[in-house]
Structures
1.
Amino acid sequence: MKRFFMISAVLAATLLQACSGVLDINRVNISSPKGVLKVEFLLLDNGQPAYRFQRGDVTVIDTSTLGFTFKNAAPIALGLAITDTAIRAVNDPWEMPWGEQLHVDNRFNELRVSLVEQQAPNRKLDIVFRIYDDGMGFRYEFPSQGGLDTLIIMDEHTQFQLAGNHTCWWQPGDWDIYEHLYNTTPFSGIDALSKQNHPNLAQTYIPENAVNTPVTMKTAEGLYLSFHEADMGDYTDMTLKVFPSRFLMESELVGNATGVKAVVKVPFSTPWRTVMVTDRAGDLIESRLIENLNEPNKLGDVSWIKPTKYVGIWWEMHLDKASWDMASGKHGATTANTKRYIDFAAENSIGAVLVEGWNTGWDHWIGFDDREGVFDFVTPYADYDLPEVVRYGKSKGVEIIMHHETSAAPRTYEQQLDTAYALMHSLGVSMVKTGYVGKIIPKGEYHHGQWMHRHYQKVLETAAKYGVAVNAHEPFKATGERRTYPNAISREGLRGQEFNAWASDGGNPAEHLSVVAFTRMLAGPIDYTPGIFNIKLKPYKPNNQVNTTLAHQLALYVVVYSPIQMAADLPEHYQGQPAFQFVRDVGVNWEETRVLDGEPADFVTIARKERETGSWFLGSITDENAREQTIVLDFLDTDIPYTSTIYADGAKAHWDKNPTDITITKQVVRKGDTLTLMLAPGGGAAVSFIKK
Ligand code: NOJ
Ligand code: CA
């Protein structure tokens, strides 16, 4: 099958070339390496480029058109002809310096279609498809050409014509934040504008009935689809505008107050527009399509980037036990408190301590419009001795994680970038958490627009220069750039654990991470900050709580992927807790990942093998419904006995009525044994398999 499509395209290209330079063809097919998926590129009668996408006999995307509108030029949409087609088969495996797995298969067939406008200005445009067995990506490439220097893009018109009214897991297309709950509705029921009201954050702008990506769907045939993008480059975030009754989506790029979406210099390539398609929900999580569609590592030796668990002077601020600023009289980031956290980390195999509120500026951030020139990224508060805490930490094998809250005033941050990162470098600090709370200054720019993307990219590249890895909060969404810049170590970009401390809408529901695993997590690592043991948040927040059981919190260390994982609760809440042993033991860097089972918004069970030790860890979480999971341990190595410790919901466990009821049992297991796990409502299970 594969061979047929490849040969037919090549023959068409060579046999039919006309002297005008235009080929007398209007269709080209290409299929994936194993022939599972097939894309057809076609020119409609009016010369408009379009494509169709199939899995076997099932239409995934029906005829969908492609094109652009510009400010400084006529649209590119109609009257195009094919001048050339080129096909190649690529097999280019690579290794992740850190990640969900060590070895990555990267096998695809590529089709390049070169187009030209048949009338003046006769602009040229290539459309390139890369087709894998679990999905495909395509992008627009504007080659160098006379008379085309800069394009002011008013919008990209990439359509995705769905073949039915699929079940969708979606969140509103927001130009400022990704911190929304996911909704489960048929496609025809997507109504993003009804989600405008966002009580908890200052910044949010939802201009259209559109969805953020990744957006995930299930078809009537049982196929799982997920739409996203890869390799952002110098561009802007794509949301997908929804036409509910037509089952149609079209790219709606994030712009700014001028109405412009992106300004690009030719030659130029857009990000890849990606569609994953699998017949098992778990295969979406196992897919490495997004990273494969990015360029290889540009940073060379990145052995200085160390996956780690960490604790932080953080949750105590979200609980209002302490504050970021000093004037309140309950400043969290003091030298003494930091040393307390360092001691706790050292005693519990935790490699790092995040310290928020260490620098001046916190008395003038949230709620202020004049935030420029306020935060200072090199000057500690008087009660915080930065060199001393770094020294003390290093003496105990614990790193300090630096914190840069910019209050969404990126120009102030950029002015200090070099000095701030040089300071970290001089101290031997190799990780920073950044933050962008508030509306972007200058007014009229949005977190997810091109202007901000350039800022995030500048921060990432400056950080790499100084040997620093970045964990961005209020970030630009991940599009797989961690392959090219492995110092993009993790990010937020979802409703994190912190919402449970203060959200006025009841916090994250029990199903939250069972949806996140099949949506946001397909983009890349998540700094969710799991591990809250004091689930009811007493005595600090009597009206808030975490809506899961304790065993569910443990399972998140495996289910939610990040190479840096926080033990987010206060150290005193871990004292004397036998369940904390799982947090001590669990790995953060994986050789292999197996998604054993799962269904978006219901449950998910994942097993991962730790790189250095070969130990396996399993996490299983459920929504508000109790479930039984029977797990065949066929992922374990042959003939080796493992000691498994099972942290399971107790018989009376319930996310609300009895969240901390947990049982811990040990047994020796081998490959092929089965394990039955009972998950309580809002519950979960965490299992370690350590070689005896
Ligand atoms: C929002 C971040 O998500 C949170 O983790 C941080 O503590 C605050 N901003 C302050 O920077
Ligand atoms: Ca559910």
2.
Amino acid sequence: MTPLEVLLAELIAAEGPLRIDRYMALCLGHPRHGYYITRDPLGEKGDFVTAPEVSQVFGELVGVWAVGAWGLMGQPGAFNLVELGPGRGTLMADVLRTVRKAAPAFAASASVHLVETSPVLRAAQRTAVGAGAQWHDRLEDVPEGPMILLANEFFDAIPIRQFERREGVWRERVIGLTDGRLSPGVGGIVPGTMGRDGDVMEFAPARDEIARHIGERIAAHPGAALLIDYGHLHTAPGDTLQAMRAHRFLPVTETPGEADLTSHVDFEKLAAAVREAGAVVHHGMTQRGFLLAMGLEQRIAQLALRADDVTRATLARQMARLADEAQMGNLFKVLCATSPGMSTPYPFG
Ligand code: SAH
């Protein structure tokens, strides 16, 4: 048993089964044994690889997007460039390198704010981005004002609740104990009759709250947000809670605190929360559609010109990983939100 599993078993024995959101929050964020608190999980040697870690081109294209959005905001001479859950800081470092070259006025106007709860990853971000950035535990702590906000694979790590229909009634999924070991189960009946037996519905009040907060900020000040994650553009039933360790899936109750625990992002609900707060949400698109429209192929071709054969092959592999339908291209979606009255940033029009 992992140290966290021992604690969770004691907690469940004392207080009863845990809701999935509490279980996720403890596995990922427990102050001593939480997955993100104790390690840097990224990279080939870690548990998973994200788009900015696949290729510098990802961050370069996001940087180009951000400069476009800044233009539509009226090129404010001071604005907050915010990233939620920046991991190793690779995306922000690639964005900053790109804009310093391509749009020095943008770079000079930006104050970088990183929202991160992991001390290990904060240290990595300081190395990648430099000490000029400011760190916060929550978006609420970032100063108000014009803002461009980026989030890649952030919302998937924010806890969800799950409900399952059994014999005509909906019950909340929980993590309980069987023979002293953690085991999935269901709790009390919750109202509702829609769906069919076996259906699982997921709700993420914690995600909705962050999305509402993003919406409130860009409704009050000029701003744009780019939210990238794996998930679906339309709400649908399904159990998407998943644990991953060393690039392989495992049961969600196995090695708690030592495996990543995420679920697919319901972009329809996320968009509704942003909209409810007064911001405008544009049509979502796939990561493939976004990156190709932003010039992925052209940028890769440009890098390939100066490269040897081995590097050229690597570049082709990286491009495929980011954009092929069967790889990250279709599973990952991109949502863009802006202030009301602002023109739609390319390529969302
Ligand atoms: N965006 C990065 C990392 C994705 S992993 C990339 O694409 O490589 C998820 C990130 O979100 C990590 O940096 C993790 O520490 C952070 N995170 C998870 N839960 C968080 C929370 N509640 N508040 C702030 N950051 C969180």
